[in-house]
Amino acid sequence: MLSLIPRLFQRAPEPDTEARQWVRAVTLWTRRQPVWARPLGQAHLVLPIREHFPGQADTRHGMAQIVFDAVCHHAGFADGPFRLAQPDDLLDDPVPMGSWGHAPRPESIPIPYDPRLVGENEALIGHFAREIALRLLPTSEEPAPSQAGNEGHVAELLATQMGFGVMLANTAFHVRVGGCGSCSAPSAERQASLGRDDLVYALALFCHYQGIAPSRARTFLNKPLRPVFRQATRSLAQQARASA
Length: 244
Description:
Elements: H1 17-32, H2 37-41, H3 60-75, E1 82-84, E2 109-111, H4 121-136, H5 151-170, E3 176-177, E4 188-189, H6 196-210, H7 214-218, H8 226-243
Parallel strand pairs: 1-2
Antiparallel strand pairs: 3-4
């Protein structure tokens, strides 16, 4: 009989302590990089709402441009150097410019996208934030902990500290659009590296360090993620009280 009772008050699963330690180490690393001090210091919680992403367009590329411009604005790069690539200019090399520390800063860095993601707003926002962060990694003074081979993971943590954690966490399960299981129609995905629990913890860290009320982020998280976020924010608050 008890098995028939809905598990309305199911607790969040026990966290992966080792993974959380790495997420926190990389998060602290992002905040130590002088080149990112201004955009990360001014970062705010970006939400998938019209106030943060206003505007409409009549074409897919026009709509993608509106979303891209808003992402750049929220990330602190409204004046460049990033630009939206045309849909047929998809790039294979995610970091085409080399290390900015040893080469002139490029005037224009194209950010590719798949037009089939247009209409999936959170996935498109997460995609742009991740791609911008990926191209920022070579500007750091030192690589992140265990960065080699994990550049995508590190980029998503950097993008979370830029304010885009809600969208990244909500779409960390590889959003697929444009296809179906019974046909051979092409489909598109937002490329994702980290799991949802890791990104939720990174979002909790962002709110903690930026002094943002956790309830603001929790409201916009997908329901399955809220218990994990609640547990993470409580754990961080307890740690802060213990060290006070």
